[in-house]
Specification:
Elements: H1 6-20, H2 35-51, H3 53-67, H4 75-86, E1 91-97, E2 100-105, H5 112-119, E3 149-154, E4 157-162, E5 165-168, E6 184-189, H6 197-207, E7 220-224, E8 230-235, E9 237-248, E10 251-261, E11 267-276, E12 291-300, H7 309-312, E13 315-319, E14 321-326, E15 331-334, H8 349-372, H9 374-377, H10 394-414, E16 416-419, E17 423-426, E18 431-433, H11 443-450, H12 465-475, E19 482-484, H13 486-489, H14 500-513, H15 517-520, E20 526-527, E21 533-534, E22 544-546, H16 552-556, E23 559-561, H17 571-582, E24 586-587, H18 592-605, E25 612-613, H19 616-627, H20 631-644, E26 645-652, E27 658-663, H21 683-687, E28 694-696, H22 700-703, H23 713-719, E29 729-730, E30 735-737, E31 740-744, H24 752-761, E32 765-767, E33 770-771, H25 773-783, H26 788-810, E34 815-822, E35 824-832, H27 834-841, E36 845-846, E37 852-853, H28 863-869, H29 879-885, H30 889-894, H31 903-918, H32 925-937, H33 951-959, E38 965-967, E39 970-972, H34 997-1004, H35 1011-1021, H36 1026-1030, H37 1035-1054, E40 1069-1071, E41 1074-1076, E42 1081-1084, H38 1087-1099, ...
Parallel strand pairs: 1-7, 13-15, 18-19, 22-23, 22-24, 25-26, 42-43, 42-44, 46-50, 55-57
Antiparallel strand pairs: 1-2, 2-6, 3-4, 3-6, 4-5, 7-8, 9-10, 10-11, 11-12, 12-15, 13-14, 16-17, 20-21, 26-27, 26-28, 29-33, 30-31, 31-32, 32-34, 34-35, 36-37, 38-39, 40-41, 45-47, 47-48, 49-50, 51-61, 52-61, 53-54, 54-55, 56-60, 57-58, 58-61, 59-60
Length: 1526
């Protein structure tokens, strides 16, 4: 049976011919007539590739490659539309339903010749069709993005195309909404790639109606929902418009124009033409005709939209359909070569040749559009900032650049704009105002200013893009209009014919420019309330404007009230008002501050301008206004306002006549009636009728009294600048030199002494120098005063005036720099200011003789001047003046009136004293002392002024020859004497000792006494000869000896290093056997016992002796052991009695009462001594008194077996609690019972012995004692009790730990015998398992064991808790809330990177050592570190908390607690601070665990953000050392 019928066989044969390309070119291929014939052809098409395996593999690979060409997964939809366009379709429909994408078009149905291009990638049937869009043959393959198979249904054709090849698709019933049998439908199953209708809708929305602009056939693309309803429709409506001629590539062409609108109203003007194809070039994979199409679409302003075209539309390059984005508001079409993905353009010569042709067409289209609708044409012109897009392809970039160039060179030169009555005008013949003048000038005004017609406002776009375009054209040399700038436009302000409103608008533009202040002030455009126009006030003018009547400025007569047009709330009047306000030319709401600013500004710059003469009423208004100002504004404005106004005043002429004048307060002085100082100390009294000075009328004191809200007339007038002291000013005769104006050496009026001094220095100028003309005038007037009494009074007044103002006005100008100018300013020295130099040289002060004298040659009479210069010296200041102005030291010193002699003068006088003594005169020690005191009071500089001595000079002067230090031993150099208290009497020379002398002698190099000095002096005190050494030293010797020993004791206490190496153990001492250097020498605190012991030793023939230092032994505590002296203490002394003496009840009762009185006396008057009692008062009062007439004392000398017996009057047996006395009377004696009882005190025994006598008298008188217990004693008792309790708790804790260690060792031994590993070791290993130990430097806790036998309770050092109170604060505003510890351990996890070891490793090791020290495992001592807010690192089974602090090396004395840790420590009775030290290998520090109970009470707390506890090393604690385990 035949496979096919003849018709089917024919169809299959043609299929094979088409596949193998064996038919003649151009031959018509017969179309199969029946469905069966079509099926036969399709089956044959499917078989042919399989006959050649390579061919089939190539086809499969090509299909797979083709589907990945585009990155847009819906690019296939664009390809179907393109296919429909090439087939003449007018509509394309798309539907997604039942997991299937359906795309249909009404173009030409599928033919047999279409099967191969449809099913084979990279094969196209359109290569020879120049008008067709398709060219690569991969369009349909891009649908493989969505599915592995694609079906095509068209007429009899049912194609199924898969990656493996072509096959016959099953018959389908397609939705009727897709058109009908004559429509071609592409069916894409979506099993692999999900796709929704919304996805397609979004894709079409991004495409937009604009995508269809250049299609010839397809007029609509419709998206249907699953029910066939239209969801989105892309469509355009075209309307033909008038053609125009254009020149493209040098060829005149006719351009067809169509206005195109989309359904939402967006409009384009599409200009289309055909031009000759670029010669010698052809597109890639496409036929080329003689001509090629070009088209541009210019966006037109949509009706009713506010958005400019440049913002509302995006540009694109089309090859019929969009291919590449364009950063310009235009769409263009040409027969470009797109990339295979159709997402860009290839950089081919063909494409590059089309670019200038498109640019020519675009330029012509835009030029034509300007003629039709110029306002809507500006947005079509490209700007450079919109043409730079990174990543764009080469052709698109060239196209953008070409369009920008055509706009600048072609459009700008060719466009014409119609102007009313004048016809079309070129751009260069038009005028445009500056942007800020938009809407402010009329077209007529623009033409008036430039003599060119204005660019009509109707020809400008509302968004102002035309200005950007014109600027770009101007910047690149293109045609441009004439410009009208703000400067030119402001000329119109002078046109009184313009309305006030227009003037305000224009002025506001000038204000906004920021530079037109002077131009604005050149025209009269500010109108007052009557309509009169005025120029705006300049800053130096007094005129001002106000927004309402009744202001201070109006009261003072310099304000206009603004016209209502300037007071409107609209922007321009507001801008003008702000400008006026900024210039302090506008008063708002009667603002007095602005009025005063204006007045001050006028005063500041109006040097010779007329001042405002004020009536009394105006002056009071001004005073009230100042009273209402803030203090800073008052002081800032007062002086300048004082220059702007004038008050009544008077001035004296040279002949003494008085003249009434008007003068500014800032140029006047206050009379004595207003200046509230003592009249005799006022400037008015000093000046009197000096010519040239102006004085305000005294009557202003009455005019201004009672007004000004408490501001006195004096305060107000001084605020206005009226002065009470001469003014100082920059020198008027400065010369210009090296960009500075400075005062030359020969300036007019320069004193001769100034000239000589500057010549000596080599200086030419003084810098920043001042003068005081009024002060000069007054000084000369005083010098000319004939009456000596009046002259002195006026001089006194002037010095007081200068003194009151010295610190604020004159002191900073007292001295100036002297310099010379050579290439630059070269500073040489400091000299007095010009004004001061003149004042020093005018003879206006009287001397003692009553003659007018220059201040520079006068000197005050003082003790030092009398000593140095003598009592009858010439040139002394008049005593009346000195007495009156003595407190004005700064003024007198500045005037050069010497109050004290110079350093050189004093040294000279000392030399004269020394020479006078050498020549036989008497020694003047008191005179020398006065000179030393004067010298000590001076500050001797390191660099002395001319004529005086520096420190080095002074040291040299004192060290020359015999020296200038006068001692009891004569004149000495500083190195040959000592400074300080003369301890050594006549044995050493001491510089005179006086208050303040220490600094002087130290500066001169006089040494302090040293230990060697004291030792040498003591040796010198020892006489020669045996008998002489035994004689009692005289009073002077004993005094020097005592002071020398006390000096050595002070060194031992304050500076023990000073005694190192001193031979004190062989130092001669005065003893009971005389002077001796031998030892032993004994020291006994009780003076009576010491005497008896010394006598006994002498009598026994012993070489030993008892030391007699000359004072109480307690004063030499630091020295005794250094001297090799052996102390005989209470333990070395015992009473000796015969038999059993009976107690004396009466004496015992009296002793009890006397002890009570002694305690009361000391507690009241000397509590420090009371606290020196060794033992308790109860023990002292509990002594039993026994009378033993034969009482002796037995002394066991330390280091010897010898017992020494001698009789004593009193003795105490502390073991028996008995006080023995020879008789009851000894109880009342200072040297007997007083001394014995005082021996029970650690210090101040003499005071105790004296107090005992008084206590015994009170007891004998039967007086009752009061038991006084001071608060510090109670606190001490409480602390002692707490310390005892704490010590018991710590000892109990130590015993507990010891027991646990003992039990742990027993368990370990048992486990070892049984072969088991200790459970505790397992737990500890689990709790601390460091990784890579060899890379770490921490000790390994598993290799260490605690040595509990070496553990110890460290006693408390009181300094460690000197200010510990337990009341420290964590520094937080509130108490932190503590978390409860969980029942299980919470070991923190390591999160940081490891270097050598991490902080957590250190914490782990520390906690493991604590567990080992306490003999607890991880269950018995739980880890709490990962629990936030607990305030402790661990807790044991008894709920005792432990906070662990660790140190790699030695433990530090301070640790810090966080707020939570601090709160835990304050709220828990059992809180332990555990300090682990020695955690790092190789440091040499042993590993130790210190346990501190109740740390807040033991340690000093210093709160900040955390609480720092100090004193760890010195607090009572349990310390457990570790050793290396076996």
């Amino acid at each position: 049976m035949a496979r096919w019928t003849a018709k089917e066989e024919e169809a299959a044969e043609w299929a094979e011919r088409l596949f193998k390309k064996t038919s003649a070119p151009g031959r018509v291929v017969p179309e199969p007539a029946t469905p069966e014939a079509v099926r036969a052809a399709i089956e044959r098409f499917a078989e042919l590739p399989t006959e050649t395996g390579v061919m089939q593999d190539l086809a499969i690979g090509a299909r797979r490659a083709a589907k990945g060409v585009s990155t847009d997964r819906l690019q296939g939809l664009s390809e179907v539309v393109q296919n429909a366009e090439d087939l003449g379709a007018t509509e394309v429909r798309i539907q997604v339903r039942e997991a299937t994408l359906l795309v249909a078009h009404n173009g030409r149905p599928v033919l047999l010749t279409d099967v191969i291009p449809l099913s084979m990638p990279w094969l196209t049937s359109k290569a020879e069709d120049a008008e067709a869009i398709g060219r690569f043959g991969i369009g349909l393959m891009t649908l493989f993005h969505l599915s592995s198979t694609i079906e095509v249904h068209s007429g009899h054709y049912r194609l199924r195309i898969g990656e493996s090849g072509l096959s016959l698709a099953p018959a389908r019933v397609l939705p009727p909404a897709l058109g009908g049998d004559e429509w071609t439908v592409f069916r894409v199953p979506l099993a692999e790639e999900p796709l929704t209708t919304s996805d397609v809708d979004d894709w079409l929305a991004s495409w937009g109606n604009d995508a269809l602009l250049f299609l010839r056939h397809v007029a609509a693309v419709v998206l249907l929902d699953a029910h066939g309803r239209t969801m989105r429709r892309l469509a355009l409506r075209r309307e033909a418009a008038e053609r125009f001629k254009a020149e493209v590539a040098g060829q005149s062409v006719s351009v067809e124009v169509a206005d195109v609108r989309d359904p939402v109203g967006l409009c384009w003007r599409v200009c289309h033409t055909v031009v000759a194809s670029p010669p010698g070039l052809e597109p890639a994979a496409k036929a080329v005709g003689d001509t090629t199409p070009l088209a541009v679409a210019l966006p037109l302003e949509p009706a009713g939209t506010a958005a400019p075209v440049s913002e509302a539309r995006s540009g694109h390059v089309h090859v019929r359909l969009p291919v590449a984005p364009l950063a310009l508001p235009v769409r263009v079409h040409a027969a470009f070569d797109p990339t295979p993905s159709r997402q860009g353009l290839q950089a081919t010569a063909w494409n590059k040749a089309l670019v200038p042709r498109l640019a020519d067409l675009w330029g012509a289209a835009v030029t034509a559009q300007f003629r039709l609708a110029p306002a809507s044409s500006w947005p079509m012109v490209p700007l450079p900032q919109r043409t730079s897009r990174q990543g764009q392809d080469e052709v698109v970039g060239a196209l953008e650049a070409a369009l920008l160039e055509r706009a600048r060179l072609q459009v700008s030169a060719r466009l014409r704009i119609d102007v009313s009555t004048q016809g079309p005008q070129a751009l260069e013949d038009l005028a445009v105002e500056a942007a800020e003048l938009t809407g402010v000038l009329t077209e007529a005004e623009i033409e008036r200013l430039t003599e060119h017609p204005a660019l009509p406002y109707a020809a400008r776009d509302s968004a102002g893009r035309y200005r950007q375009v014109l600027k770009d054209w101007s910047d690149h040399g293109a045609a441009k209009p004439v410009s009208v700038d703000v400067w030119d436009a402001l000329e119109l302000l002078g046109d009184e014919g313009r309305s006030l409103e227009n003037a305000i608008e224009l002025a506001a533009v000038g204000v906004a420019s920021g530079w037109a202040d002077h131009r604005l002030s050149s025209f009269a455009w500010l109108a007052d309330e009557r309509g009169t126009r005025h120029r705006p006030p300049e800053s130096g003018e007094l005129r001002i404007f106000a927004d309402r009547p009744g202001s201070l400025a109006e009261s003072l007569g310099f304000a206009h009230v603004l016209h209502p047009a300037f007071l409107a709330d609209s922007p321009s009047p507001t801008c003008v008002r702000k400008w006026l306000a900024k210039r302090d030319a506008l008063l708002t709401d009667g603002d007095e501050l602005t009025a005063l600013r204006r007045l001050a500004s006028y005063g500041k710059v109006g040097m010779n301008a007329p001042t405002l003469q004020l009536t009394d009423e105006q002056l009071r208004d001004l005073q009230d206004a100042f009273a209402r100002l803030d203090a800073p504004d008052r002081s800032r404005l007062g002086g300048d306002v004082g220059l702007a106004v004038a008050l009544q005043a008077h001035r004296y002429a040279s002949d003494g006549s008085r003249h009434e004048v008007w003068e500014s307060p800032a140029k006047s002085y206050l009379p004595a009636g207003i200046d509230r100082v003592d009249r005799t100390e006022s400037f008015a009294h000093a000046a009197r009728n000096t010519p040239g000075l102006t004085w305000l009328r005294r009557r202003y004191s009455d005019v201004l009294r009672g007004t000004g809200a408490g501001m006195s007339p004096l305060s107000f007038l001084r605020l206005l600048g009226a002065d009470t002291a001469p003014r100082i000013q920059l020198h008027r005769h400065r010369e210009e030199r090296l960009n500075r104006r400075e005062v030359p050496v020969h300036a007019p009026g320069s004193p001769e002494s100034r000239i000589a001094k500057m010549h000596a220095l080599g200086a030419e100028y003084t810098l920043n120098d001042r003068e005081t003309p009024d002060l000069d005038a007054v000084a000369h007037a005083i010098a000319d005063e004939a009456d000596g009494t009046v002259r002195c009074q006026r001089a006194i007044a002037l010095i007081h005036v200068l003194g009151r103002a010295w610190a604020k006005r004159y002191s900073e100008h007292e001295s100036v720099k002297a310099a010379y100018a050579y290439r630059s300013w070269n500073f040489v020295d400091t000299v007095p200011g010009f004004w001061l130099w003149r004042l020093k040289e005018i003879p206006w002060l009287d001397s003692e003789s009553g003659n007018p004298t220059a201040p520079s040659v006068l000197r005050r009479r003082t003790e030092a001047t009398a000593v140095v210069y003598g009592a009858e010296a010439e040139g002394l200041l008049h005593p009346e003046i000195q007495a009156a102005v003595g407190r004005r030291v700064d003024v007198l010193k500045a005037l050069g009136i010497g109050g004290e002699p110079t350093t050189a003068d004093i040294v000279g006088r000392l030399r004269r004293l020394r020479e006078a003594e050498r020549e036989g005169g008497s020694r003047d020690a008191s005179g020398a002392l006065l000179l030393y005191r004067a010298l000590a009071a001076k500050t001797v500089p390191s660099r002395a002024p001319a004529g005086d001595l520096s420190r080095d000079d002074l040291r040299g002067a004192f060290a020359q020859g015999d020296g200038l230090v006068l001692t009891d031993a004569g004149w000495k150099t500083p190195s040959a004497c000592l400074r300080g208290t003369p301890l050594f009497g006549r044995l050493r020379a001491f510089a005179p000792h006086f208050i303040g002398g220490e600094v002087l002698w130290q500066m001169l190099g006089v040494p302090e006494p040293s230990a060697d000095d004291a030792i040498a002096v003591i040796r010198e005190l020892v006489p020669s000869g045996t008998e002489a050494k035994r004689r009692e030293p005289d009073a002077e010797t004993q005094t020097v000896l005592l002071q020398s020993l006390q000096f050595l004791e002070d060194l031992a206490s304050s500076n023990p290093e000073a005694l190192k190496g001193s031979p004190l153990r062989r130092l001669p001492l005065w003893t009971s056997r005389g002077w001796t250097s031998r030892r032993p020498v004994y020291a006994v605190a009780d003076e009576a016992v010491a005497a008896l012991l010394g006598a006994a030793l002498t009598e026994s023939g012993s070489d030993a002796a008892v030391w007699r230092p000359g004072a109480e032994m307690e004063h030499f505590r630091g020295l005794i052991h250094r001297l090799g002296v052996t102390v005989v203490g209470p333990d070395d002394t015992a009473p000796h009695v015969s038999g059993r003496p009976l107690p004396d009840p009466h004496a015992t009762a009296r002793l009890v009462a006397a002890v009570a009185h002694l305690r009361e006396d000391l507690q009241r008057n000397d509590p420090g001594t009371a606290r020196e009692l060794a033992g308790s008062w109860e023990e002292l009062a509990g002594l039993l008194v026994c009378v033993e007439p034969g009482l002796t004392c037995t002394v066991t000398l330390p280091g010897q077996a010898t017992l020494v017996h001698f009789p004593v009057e009193t003795a105490i047996d502390t073991g028996q609690g008995v006080m023995y006395v020879r008789s009851a009377s000894a109880l009342a004696r200072f040297s007997h019972a007083g001394r014995t009882l005082a021996g029970r005190f650690r210090a101040r025994r003499r005071e105790v012995a004296c107090a005992w006598v008084a206590a015994w008298e009170r007891a004998e008188a039967g007086l009752s004692a009061i038991d006084i217990t001071r608060s510090e004693d109670r606190i001490s008792a409480l602390n002692e009790a707490a310390d005892a309790e704490e010590e018991q708790r710590l000892a109990a804790f130590r015993d507990e730990v010891h027991e646990r260690h003992t039990n742990a060792r027993a368990r370990t031994a048992g486990d070892a015998r049984s072969g088991k590993r200790p459970a505790d070791a397992q737990v500890r290993r689990a709790a601390y398992a460091p990784a890579q130990l060899k890379e770490r430097h921490l000790v390994d806790p598993t290799e260490l064991r605690p040595v509990f036998t070496d553990s110890a309770i460290v006693p408390q050092n009181d300094r460690s808790r000197s200010d510990a109170s337990g009341s420290g604060s964590s520094g937080s505003s509130g108490r932190p809330s503590l978390s409860r510890p969980s029942s299980s351990s919470a070991v923190p996890q390591q999160r940081s990177g490891v270097k050598m070891f991490t902080p957590q490793d250190q914490e782990d090791a520390a906690l493991a050592l604590v567990r080992a020290a306490l003999a607890r495992d991880s269950e018995e001592l739980r880890d709490l570190r990962a629990q936030r807010g607990v305030g402790a690192d661990s807790v044991d089974e008894l709920n005792r908390f432990y906070e662990v602090k660790s140190f790699l090396g030695a433990e530090e004395d301070s640790v810090s607690l966080t707020p939570h840790e601090y709160e835990r420590a304050t709220t828990e009775d059992d809180f332990f601070l555990v300090v682990v030290s020695g955690l790092q290998r190789g440091t040499g520090v042993p590993t130790t665990v210190r346990i501190v109970l109740d740390p807040l009470r033991k340690l000093s707390a210093r709160p900040s953000g955390v609480v720092t506890l100090t004193g760890v090393r010195g607090c009572r604690s349990l310390q457990i050392p570790f050793e290396q385990a076996d």
